[in-house]
Amino acid sequence: MLMQDSIDLALKMTTGLPTKLILKASAAHPKPEGVTFSYGTAGLRTKAAVLDSVCFRMGLIGALRSKRLQGKVVGLMVTASHNPEEDNGIKAVDSRGEMLEAAWEPFCTQLANASTDDELISVLESIIITFKIDLSIPATVVYGHDTRPSSPHLVKALVDGLVAFGTQLIDAGLKTTPQLHYLVKAHNTKGTPEAYGEPSEEGYYKKISQAYLKLVAGKPSLSPLVVDCANGVGAPALLAITKYIAADALPVRILRTSTGVQGALNNGCGADFVKTNQRLPIGLEKDGIEAGDRLCAFDGDADRLIYFYCNGPPSTKSSFRLLDGDKIASLATDYISELVKKADIDIKVGCVQTAYANGSSTKYLKQRVPVTCTPTGVKYLHHAAEAYDIGVYFEANGHGTVLFSPEAVRTIKAAQASPSSPAAQDALEQLEQLTELINQTVGDAISDMLLVEFILRARQWGPEEWDGAYEDLPNKLLKVNVKDRSAFKTTDAERRLTSPAGLQEKIDELVGKYKGARSFVRPSGTEDCVRVYAETALASDLDSLANGVAKLVQESSGST
Ligand code: G16
Question: Which residues does the record give as substrate binding sites (predicted)?
Answer without folding.
Answer: 395-397, 522-526, 531
